[in-house]
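Final report, closing paragraph on structural work. Over the funding period we assembled a curated collection of sequence-structure pairs, and we close with a single example.
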Amino acid sequence: MPRQKRSRLLFDKIITTAKALYEQEGYAYVTTNRIAEKANISIGSLYQYFKNSESIALAVYEMTRILN
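Its predicted structure, as stored:
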């Protein structure tokens, strides 16, 4: 979990974008490239926080569980 505000904002942007894409397109059709594209960030920035699409999905699940 990032500590700096700028990093936290980017992390949250990735999570929010992924969640929206999962809801719109379905998990099976969402790739890391698609998430980065939709979030308007580089794929390298995404990979600074997540090692693969499964780790993003897990983070989305955990954040959703915490908020509900």
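The helical segments are 5-25, 32-39, 43-49, 53-67. The domain at 5-67 is CATH 1.10.10.60 (Arc Repressor Mutant, subunit A). We thank the funder for supporting this effort.
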